[in-house]
Amino acid sequence: SRTPVTVTVTGAAGQIAYALLFRIAAGDMLGPDQPVRLRLLEIPQAVGAAEGTAMELDDGAFPLLAGIDITDDAAVAFDGTNIALLVGARPRGPGMERGDLLEANGGIFGPQGAAIQAGAADDVRVLVVGNPANTNALIAQRNAPDVPAGRFTAMTRLDHNRALSRLSAHIETPVSDLARVTIWGNHSATQYPDLTHALANGTPVINRVDRSWIEQEFIPGVARRGAAIIEARGASSAASAASAAIDHVRDWVQGTPPNDWTSVALPSDGSYGVPEGLVSSFPVTSSGGEWRIVPDLEIDAFSRERIDASVAELAEERAAVEQLGLI
Ligand code: NDP
């Protein structure tokens, strides 16, 4: 049988991990023939709760689950890891300024980046879910300068999936018939969900939807979906975030379908005027285990303005973490 792939999940006692770990163990991320070994990282106070999650994973009797290790030591968690899902992050507390939040997360993602560089497998792939995800990914990446920068990504797939779902409902077309939706920029309220190039059954959707629907309902609806879920559910979106993380890694490893693309935040190569190195969301395809930014898309004036606004926020976050000495 195949050698197990080692998958590290941080924040393993949290809500997203609670949904995510079962999907990984079931083979939804790496396929039905690929055994996995799980490494769960938690802060010391939450190791006991992570043990509880691991007991439930044991009770799933998953044929693909080759073992579970639980630790509060990043060096142990990332030793030999192939896939690192950085879910645990410091939440914004009452009265916390953005600088405090970035600093607290720098204290988490800096050492995790260093531990990845020191011990992870040569093929390591990193997905940051914990917020502020783009800048947390930047911090981890800059603390792992010997790892190819493109191995560090942040998740905008949930925003992408939300955009597909909103569009599907509005034009009454199944998600499976939609393609080429894009999320640009930061995973934050400034993100730009872009339908300019979107297709339904191979034909452009842009002429079938009103500008006012795009600007007043679609864009804010995607960006504010997380808040709407908290209001309805009394808890933040965890299962859909986990599902998006599964989609992200699956597409990274197994490739994107022909004639479609997805959205991933990754270190910019300067494409579309996004300053080099900023971890910003782009339309991307995947093949051979690598993301490639979709080239040469026409960007209209409205899109330009929205992309620039979100990228400006990312540039400010980068300047703030530079000033804090985190990168
Ligand atoms: P969740 O599992 O619900 O969320 C974890 C992170 O994912 C948060 O930063 C959250 O951001 C972010 N996130 C990204 N996208 C979404 C989305 N669409 N919906 C909801 N969240 C999203 O948090 P819990 O508090 O349940 O669990 C976090 C765990 O992480 C705790 O057990 C804690 O102990 C642990 N932790 C572990 C660390 C480590 O392993 N070294 C370090 C820090 C914490 P947002 O806050 O903006 O919602």
Automatic annotation (TrEMBL):
SUPFAM superfamilies (UniProt xref): LDH C-terminal domain-like, NAD(P)-binding Rossmann-fold domains
Positions bound to substrate: 92, 98, 131, 162
PROSITE patterns on file: MDH
The keyword S-adenosyl-L-methionine appears for this protein: no
Signal peptide: none
Residue ranges of domain Lactate/malate dehydrogenase N-terminal in the record: 6-145
InterPro entries xref list: L-lactate/malate_DH (IPR001557), Lactate/malate_DH_C (IPR022383), Lactate/malate_DH_N (IPR001236), Lactate_DH/Glyco_Ohase_4_C (IPR015955), Malate_DH_AS (IPR001252), Malate_DH_type2 (IPR010945), NAD(P)-bd_dom_sf (IPR036291)
GO molecular-function terms, A-Z: L-malate dehydrogenase (NAD+) activity
Pfam families noted in UniProt: Ldh_1_C (PF02866), Ldh_1_N (PF00056)
Record keyword Disulfide bond present: no
Catalytic residues identified in the record: 187 (proton acceptor)
Enzyme Commission code(s) on record: 1.1.1.37
Listed Gene3D superfamilies: Lactate dehydrogenase/glycoside hydrolase, family 4, C-terminal, NAD(P)-binding Rossmann-like Domain
Family named by the database record: Belongs to the LDH/MDH superfamily. MDH type 2 family.
Protein name in UniProt: Malate dehydrogenase
